[in-house]
Every structure is written in C-alpha cells, then in structure tokens.
Write the structure tokens for this entry.
Amino acid sequence: MTFLIHPDDDCGSDAPIGGKAAALARLGAAGLPVPPWRVVLPGAGPLPPAAAAELAQAVRELSPDGAPLAVRSSARDEDGADHSFAGLFESFLSVPPEQVAAMVEAVRRSGAGERVRAYRRERGLDGPAPVPAVLVQRMVAAEAAGVAFSADPVSGRRGHVVVSAVLGLGTALVGGEADADTFTVDRRGAIVARTIVPKPVAHRPAAGLGGGVRPEAVPAGTAAQPALTDAQVGEVAALARAAERLCGRPQDIEWALAEGRIWLLQSRPITSLAGRPDPDGVLTLWDNANIAESYNGVTTPLTFSFARGVYESVYREFARLMGVPERRIEENRDLFPRMLGLIEGRIYYNLISWYRLLALLPGFAFNRGFMEQMMGVKEGMPEEVLAKLTPPGRWARWRDGGALAWSCLGLLRNHLTLPGQIRRFYARLNTALRPPEPALELMRPDELAGHYRALEGQLLLRWDAPLVNDFFAMIFYGVLRKLTAGWCGDPDGTLQNDLLCAEGGMISAEPAKRVRELAALAARDPETVRRLNEAPAREIERWLATAPEFRARYEAYLEKFGDRCLEELKLESRTLHDEPLTLLRSVGQYARRFGAAGLAATGEAEAGLRSAAEARVQAALRGRPLRRALFAWVLRHARARVRDRENLRFERTRLFGRARRLMLEFGRRLHAAGRLAEPRDVFFLTVEEVLGFVEGTTATTDLGGLAALRQREFAAFRARSPADRFATRGAVHLGNAFRADAPGVAPEGDVLRGTGCCPGVVRGRVRVIADPRQATIETGEILVALRTDPGWIMLFPSAAGLLVEHGSLLSHSAIVARELGLPAIVAVKGVTAWLRTGDWVEMDGASGVIRRLPAGVANDATQGARRA
C-alpha cells in the first residue's frame, strides 16, 4: 500500500490528492516549470509507521542538500472553481527536513478546525470536512516572487493579465503586509499599466516565496526600481495564460524568480469572476418598452422563433424599400436575425441592431434624431456605438446626403402608389389565408409544413405595404402634432387626438362597437344581463340556442375577431375561440353599467369630440388660406395612414392566428405519434425544430425531452423580473445580470403627468391590474395597468377611465379609448407603483394630469364621477 503520490504517478481525476496538488500535477505534466513535490494521501489519525518511512524517503529525495521545504494543504474542495478555502488550512514554509513529518500531522489536523467548519457552513457544504492531502514541495531560492491573475479580478477584463511582484519574501505580499509592483499586460503582451512602489536600496536577497532566507540589512534610502524587468513581466504573464489554457478557466498563480527562471508554485481558479461580464465585451442594449405591448412577460420558444423570423424578413424588406443598396444589406446581413432577443424568457429589442439599421438608411448623418424618434428609440445612441456607425469625413456626409435625395424620390413614389400597394397586399393576404384544402385538421404533417412554407413565401417575406404605411403614419402623425402645437396653440396634443377620433372604417374600434351592440341587445332583459354576468358557460350556451338575434351577432364576432385576444401575438395564447366566456362576461358588464339608453349615447360621444376639434382648427386658421390648405392635406393623410395602420395590424393578427392553428395541429400530430406528452408542448419547441422534424433537418428527434427541459427552464423564468432596459457586455448569458444601471424609483407627491389620449375629467377609485385574465372591475372604477394590448378591451366597458404606464398616442389602447370616448392617459411613468387598488384619484384625459385625492376628499367623492 502506498501513502504518497509522486508526480510521475497517475494523478487523474480519481486520485485523492486535492485541488492544489492536482493542478500542479496537470501543469507539470504539460511541461510548465513546477518545483519537485510529493503528496501525502489523506487519512484519519497519525501517520502509520509505513507512511512515516515513505515520507522520510521522499524528504531525502526532495532535499538531498538539507534545503528547506514547503508543507501545504491540498484538500478535496480547496482551490476549486467555486470555493477557494484560502488561508483556512495550515500551511508551513521554510520547514527544515527533520520537522516535515510534524508539520504534515499539523496540516492534517487543521482540516477539522473551527475555521474550516464555519466556512463550510456558510457555503452550504454538506458533511464533515475531509482530512486534507498534504503537499510537500522543494522551496525555491527566489530573487523576486509574487502572484499573477490571468484575468483582471477587479475589472473583470479577461484580456488583461495582472502581475504583482515583490523583492524577496513572498509572504509579505500574500499576507497583505507589503505593497507590490503591479503590471497589467494585454493580449498582445504589451504592458498597458504599471505601478512601481518605493523599495529599500539593497542587494536583492536570496529567498523563497515565503521564506527561508532573511533579507540582508539595508542602508537608509529607497528607490523605485521595479522588482521585474519588462521581459520578466511578460514571462510571468505568459505563464499565467498557459496555466489558464491548461486548466480551462482563468487562474490565480503564485510564482517565483530564481537564477533567471520563473517557477510556478501554485495555480487555482479565480473565483471572483463568476457572475461578472467582461467590460471589454461587445456592448448590447436591450429594451422592451415598445415590444412588451405585443409580447408581455414570459414568451414561449415557439413564439420567439416565429417573431424573430418575421422581424428578420420584414426589416430586410424595409431596408430595400428605403433605398438601401443591396450590397450594404448583404454586408450587414447579421443584424437582421438579431433585431430581437430572448432574455430570461422575455422578448427584447436589440437596440444595437436597430441603431445599425438606422445607420444604413440614407440621410442618417443629417437627421439621426428624427429617425430615432420615428423608430421609437427613446434614448439617444451611445457614443461608443455612434463612433462605429458614422463614417468619418465630409465626403461621407455629402455622399449620405445624395443617397437621402434619391431615397426621397423613392418615398414620394411609395406615397403616391401606397393605396394600390395596400389593395394588392389585401388581395395577396386574403388568398393566402382563405380556408385551406384539405382543412388543417385533415392535413398530414408534411402538408402542414408545406402550408407554412407557402404562408412564409406569400406573406412573411412580402410585408411591404404595412411597412410603407407604418412609416408614413409616423411621419404624418408627427407633422400633425407640430402643426397643432405651432399653429393652433395645442402643446398638450389634445386637439390632435380629437381630430383623429371617430375616423370610421377603423377595425380596431369595431370590436368595442360590436360589444356595445351586443350589450344593447342584452340590456333589454335584466335576466339576460344577470345570466351573462353570473351564469356558468354551459347555461349561457343553452340560452344562446333560444336567442337567435344575439347568437347571430355573437357568432359573427367570433368569426371575425376570435383571434383577437389577450397577448394575441403570442402563439401560445388561448383565443376567444378557446375561451368565449371572456367575451360574454364583457358584454354583460357593459350592459349592466350603461343600460340601453346609456349605450346609445356613448356611441355618439367621439363624433362630438371630432366636430369640436375641427371647429377649433377653423377658428385658429381663419384668414390663413395656405396654412388651412396645408393643414387639411396633412390631416387627411394622417387620418388615412393611422386608420390603415390599425387595419393592417389586424391582418397581422389574422396571420398569427393561422400560424397558431398550424402549430397546434403539429402539436396534435406529434402527441399522437408519442413524440410530445401534450399537444401544447409544441410551444416549447422552435419553428425550426418543428419543421425540421418533418423536413429532416432537425438536430434532435427527442422533441418530448427537449420540450420538458424548456418547460422547467421557463417555469423558473416566471419567478424573475429582468429590467425593461439594460446593457450587456460580451456573451449575453455569461455574467450579465439583466438589471437596470439605475433602478426605478416610485414617483413621489400627489400629482403625476402622462400623455392625455381622450378628454374627460373623472374622479374615482382605481384598480391596479397586472393580469386581466381573472380580473374584474367594479362599475365606475379607473383601470390602471402597466401596459395593454387588444385583449384588454374586454375590461374597458366597466372602466370609468384608463391609466397606462407605457404606450403612446398611437398605441392600440389609446386609439380604442378615443373611439369609445373613454378618458385615458398613457405613458404615465411609475403609475403602477404610485397607486394601489382602492386609492382615489382625479384624472384629466385632456391634459394628462392625475391627482391623488386625500382620504377625506375621496370619501366624499362620487364613484366614477365624470365631467367633460
């Protein structure tokens, strides 16, 4: 039986020699300069006689000349990637050969010391502390010694090696008793920073790292002579990098210089780098302020992969439509698949990709600020990014101006031909979305894949008309806002909002109007109102068979708007086809709140707002015929483009609805074939994986195992709360925390301001709602939400007012609120933290001002009281 391990023995992963010795064995075997050593294997109690004899022989081999030795611990968990145990076990330097056996016993006993037990408890390490192995190593008669980090442990820069060096004794450096010269070396081997500390003027002493020989007496005086030459610093840095390469992770090494040679004395992982990004990594900015209206909260892999593919195709086409040369599109082809990212299960805009897209557009050098505003970028482009995107020199600026002029001609052509483009798009879309033959539920998996590919070619890769219309909607909307403010004295945008309401032909307002019509039918009979509000689904289904007029309108609603639901762009969302009770409850609440007479009056409110706004414009522009003509032209196009924008977005809902049904059919086929545990598990696969399984291009056929793995991961994501906006460096999922640099703070005071969308002053109790699925609103309450999407419209009928933390005047909720005459304010920063359910407020939908009412005033207030 052997009690010691020799460097030439098998020191594989199963050898019980501990972390420190294992690292030296690996590095020495690879040819790095490691001083001779032996390891005493761990064991309980005193060394048996055979072990003592074997140790004595090893000491004679390591120190035939009687030179001192180092006796150090090498425990199983010591110097690991997660736990260092630094300084907790006993270690002895400059040990005379005759004292080695006693020091080995002392090191073994230290494994049961209180310091080690406390460290293990703090870090949740189970079980008793194991007896450590003991490393016995020949000391190096060092001229200089120190430590080196193959990555900067302070800044986190993986490309920098930090070398610390002292003359003579290394214990003073390791123990923090002496200052050291410090050098920073980059990846090219250049010293990019150095700090040289004053030292006593003396000959360099002969000493090992930590010991053996005392320094000679030194005369008075100091000098700033470095402990190492630049060449020696480079050797130490190269040694640290070699240790990192062989160990597979950044290393903290101890080294010594003797007779012109650098020795490696110890190597262990740098544990402080865990969870820290490399600040030299590529900057990426993530923001969900706009996209969260469509993809709020955790989103499944299937939806993300589908949306990512859509964005890639759509914005490549957008670049072409804006006149970007095909050569430049191809040179920047990597940006289009990276318009979106998935962080902890949530979809974000990759703003760097959006900035790069902006930089491709003609005229970027002239009107970057306007483009950022049009694209919805709320914060300016960082200088670090801008410097990489803006070509230097005056010639580049003039060349960009020429491209802008050419692009303007293209925009004019697109503007003139836009109505025709929209008609052709509708024709193509209606052809692509007509009922398939055979029906989806009868198709084979390969036929489903073929149908998806056909949709991809007909629509996903040809989304031209909506893109052009969106661009002109933003332009005309922005110009109209400037004209109403400058020519009509409307700085708050109230006049602009009123001018755009009651346009007619806007499909986003049609669901609300149809709900109102259904509610008017129901309001004729109190029992029907009660049934729609309180009865279970089966009772309502039986009643529908006896109410043909109501049933016809109800089924027509589902036929046209059945895919319009909460989070409608998420493929995993359950639609009104799946859960129609949501619609019926909304109709019942609307009927109960207004009654037949109130419903009739509500439908006329928005028309009055528009007429009053038009009269105000006429008064402001009286006697200015040119201004009046220009204003009328801008207003006409703003109305048309905003209307078409909402209508075309509904067509996007139809496309996503077809994709949802397609993927559910895939899920049913895969479940029937035993490949998925449940049909809806398909949402935890990607589009590429589903189609690849059918088409023979998938990397794995264990779709059930893959879906189960992702379900567990995404369940954990639901408990996390990444920030709305944050930055990452380097590899996105390595070391980045996904938290904002400056955490949001709840607003203070009793007054808050947002963007008024629909006029009307309302005083009432608020109800803050995070998830509308199971939410109810008492009649007259003011709805408060972080953000909304088209599915929230089912809650609007019972609300006396609407306050939304995110959004804009072109948000779906703002447009629908205007059409319903519902007082609304959006972009109220911090409102969901500022208010709690039960608080009373007075909101002014024209000015965007919200006042929180004191308890006494609130108690005297009338719930839902409203005045124009």
The radius of gyration is 36 Å.
